[in-house]
Amino acid sequence: MNELPSRRLVLGTMVGGALAAFASGGVSAALESYSPPVRRVRLGLNSGWLFHKGDVAGAEGPGFDDSTWDSMSVPHTWNALDGADGGSYYRGVGWYRKRVTVPETLSGMMLFLQFAGVNQVADVWVDGVHLGSHRGGYSRFRFGVTDAFRPGKSGVLAVRVTNAPNAGIAPLGADYTFQGGIYRNVSLHAIDRLAVRMLDYSGPGVYLRQRSVTDSSATVDVKATLFNNNTTSRSVVVRAVVTHANGTVVADHSTAPQTLKANSGTDIVQTLTIADPRRWNGLADPYLYSAHVEIRDADADTVTDVVTEPLGLRSFSLDATNGFKLNGSHLNLHGVNLHQDRAGDGWAVTDADHEQDFALIKEIGATAVRMAHYQHDQKDYDLADATGVVVWAEIPLVDAITDSAAFTASTQTQLRELIRQNYNHPSIVFWGIGNEQRSDNTPTNKLLTQLAALVESEDAERISTYANNLGNDAGVAGHAETTAYNKYFGWYGGSYNDLGGWADSLHKDEPERTFAVSEFGAGANPAQHALNPSVPSSGGSFHPEEYQALLHEASWKQLADRPFVWGSFVWNMFDFASDGRNEGEQPGINDKGLVTRDRMTRKDAFYWYKANWSTAPTLYITSRRWTSRTEAATELKVYSNASEVTAALNGTSLGKRNSADHIFKWTDVTLRPGSNTVTVTASVDGVPQTDTVTWNLEPGVSSGG
Predict the structure, then answer these.
(1) One of 3, 60, 309, 436 is an active-site residue; which one?
(2) What is the DSSP string of 367-382?
(3) Known catalytic membership, residue 583
(4) Strand residues in 116-256 grouped as ranges (E)
(5) Would you call the peptide bond into 171 cis, given omega within 30 degrees of 0 as the criterion?
(6) pLDDT tens readout for residues 318-374
(7) CB 49 within 8 A of CB 72
(8) Which of 233, 239, 619, 644 could form a disulfide bond with 294, CB atoms 3.0-4.6 angstroms apart?
């Protein structure tokens, strides 16, 4: 996982004299293109770790004997296997140790140790000196280590991690495994003493507030949070430059020199206007500018720091009748929920894993992703920016709260970290303040009120939301700017045909309310099959793939016809670890994914959505994994975005079918004993498509002939 990609920590040099044109303030056209100078250094610290599962006295000490510990690299979790076996999993302490040598070339620079994600409480030492603790398992955190490490000398970095239950930290409970460990990147960052702040809730220190975006112009406030860590004052110039992807400058502004006292900080806001902006326009054109902030010591005429952030210019709104608009045009937000889990690795996923996940999300044609139920790795948000999917990002306030000052403060901190660390991602439109609180009591509603107000104060332009499962009239649904509902019609009660009626009723009763469906779905084991199955037991051992497909067929047809539902999110894109479950003959797994946990199998329902959402040619025979048959009579069902599909069984034509709903059926199909080959053909936008499967009918079964 490249937690801070190159565009977020930009490093280079610039001739000082060339900067004089920007010292006086105002807009300059002195340069037509811009290449940011390198001023920061990032050292990856993922390799060379030692690990011990369990608590050990004195393990923070530099002289501690760790010779029997296990060698490993991070990302790492100790619950990759026991967290998905359907039994109990280890929730306790694990220790990590590593020797770190800071290069002598970094002498005189400020040093910061960064962890991209550790679950759930981390205590960090260098050479036995406690740097501090971080509480919360999903956000990035940093410690200043300038005085802890001596360049050219080796130091011992020790980290005590625990994922033990903690009543003071969200989440208290949820339907997924709380995996422990240093499961994201670790890195060391060196910066000049006159620089953008690193410790603003571990955010980038540069914040891009889009004041207005129209066809003719975009106005952006560029806020830089500065700190002078020197022992004497400095005269500072701050330059803000916006460039196209090719480096061409579209806006450029520098402040007049101002004095920044020793060991003090300040915030500087510059307003830039970009003429004729190219919009970040979802899947159609996810265009990204870059916004660069330079810090310059005016007396020395040198650039001391540069931070570059992505800038996607867009506008958005919600309407109770017409749903979601991006850049003034209606956009149907249809997509998936996403967890950070993977078979064999648990939460310790790599950049390549993230990229594969987003390739599958792009393949299915999703326009939106809800990154449940916590802050994800930066790589996910970067990929969303580049792909063009709209993001709902949220904090892990799930199931319940503790009515205490400690829990409230911790939850508010997690929300601030989420917002500040991800403020500049154009893909993010929604900040989620919680999910499925089981109680509608006064303390829960008080906390949700505070969190909604915090979103407004931190980021007034984006939309706060909440995922509710307590009913339309629940108090918990009344705090965020918009509400979404987790509705499992046809799985946890009712019929899968009830979804549209529920939405119509809510819309009729509260015509001014904006709302979405944040979760819906059903479990499926792709090794289990039945023809037109009845409703399975959600907690039972039989979850046929065909029922999941039927539920999603019905659900999407109802959602697609109701534009006032601003968004819908399938639960879930991928099967994931939930160790308390034992159903569908897959212990420890929530099997509602459209793709298996190992990413090897796209279930039938995946192709249903691909046929509806994607413009890519799609032709797919369902029940293809039901290869061993015991009954000759069956049906053939195909998903396609073609208008006409032709089928053949064992070389004999079954005829053509036309469909307006992407489902093509041939009933009364009769298999012969032994091998049966089914072939379907179609043309999508003039491109021929073919799919074929082989089904085997057990010998001795009558084919009716």
Answers:
(1) 436
(2) SEEEETTSPPPHHHHH
(3) no
(4) 118-119, 121-126, 129-135, 141-144, 154-162, 181-182, 186-191, 194-196, 206-213, 217-228, 234-243, 249-254
(5) yes
(6) 999 999 999 999 999 999 999 999 999 999 999 999 999 999 999 999 999 999 999
(7) yes
(8) 239
